[in-house]
Amino acid sequence: MKDKAAVISRIQMLMEFWGIQPEELEGGEAVAPKAIPPQPTAPSGPKYMHPKTGEMWDGQGVQPQWLKDAVLKEGYLPEELRRAAAEWAQRQEQQHESSHSAPTESA
User: Fold this and answer.
1) Digitized pLDDT (tens) for each residue of the chain, 107 residues in all
2) Which of 48, 36, 34 is nearest to 76 (CA)?
3) Which label site among 30, 43, 51, 97 has the fewest CB atoms less than 10 Å from its CB?
4) Quick check: 48 and 82 in contact, CB under 8 A?
5) What SS3 state is found at 56?
6) What pTM was estimated for this model as a whole?
7) In the predicted model, what is the mean pLDDT of the chain?
């Protein structure tokens, strides 16, 4: 049962990632996602990052081919790619903070 729960969890995660609706699995036609009006947002960091190549995607627009390949061909889970992006962003923030808090020389 533990293996089954893990598989179900992965299926749910992949369905969310690819925007697949349960009806599509029952042999129905693909359901077009509901149009969500774009919300103005400030530029943010990457949402997905390939841990080996360093390629990044901010989650806006069409999914890049490297992302599709990472999930479908290389076996990465979307969560792994999100985690890699989050870790990268955290390192960038730490570097930014340390470069602005360097002690200055006084005469």
Assistant:
1) 778 887 888 888 888 888 888 888 877 565 555 655 555 555 578 999 999 999 999 988 899 999 999 999 999 999 999 999 999 999 988 888 887 765 655 55
2) 48
3) 43
4) yes
5) strand
6) 0.61
7) 82
Cα(24)–Cα(20) distance, rounded to whole angstroms? 7
Tokens for 10? 């992965």
Report the length, in residues, of the chain: 107
Residue 85, token pair as written in the block? 């992006």
Q: Is residue 57 within 8 Å of 67, Cβ to Cβ? A: yes
Would you list the domain boundaries of the chain?
1-29, 45-100
Residue type, 100: H
